[in-house]
Amino acid sequence: MYVCLCHGVTERQIVAAIDSGVDCMKQLRRDLGIATECGRCASCASDCLKQTLASRNSAEGGAK
Ligand code: FES
Containing domain of residue 51, as a range? Predict the structure, then answer.
């Protein structure tokens, strides 16, 4: 699913960026151009970021 139409960024690309170390909107903005044009994707991208980080953290927490 496309999250950012201005830059053609998909949810999958956001998850891939998080898997390679991105952990904040500032980095998503810098690396993928999220919310650098119209800004309509900011809320959806932020939700995707939070959900993905939460699932990664709970997966790591379960391993400890
Ligand atoms: S949809 Fe992402 S900046 Fe416009």
Answer: 2-63
Atom of ligand 1 minimally distant from the CA of 37: 3
Protein residue whose Cα sits closest to atom 2 of ligand 1: 4
- Ligand 1 mean position, distance from CA 26 (Å): 14
Quote the number of domains for the chain: 1
For 6-19, write each residue's pLDDT tens digit.
999 999 999 999 99
Render pLDDT for 19-57 as a digit per residue (tens, 0 to 9): 999 999 999 999 999 999 999 999 999 999 999 999 988
Residues whose CB is less than 8 angstroms from the CB of residue 14 and which lie 6 or more positions away in sequence, other chains included: 3, 28, 32, 34, 45, 48, 49, 52
Q: Does the Cβ of 35 fall within 6 Å of ligand 1?
A: yes
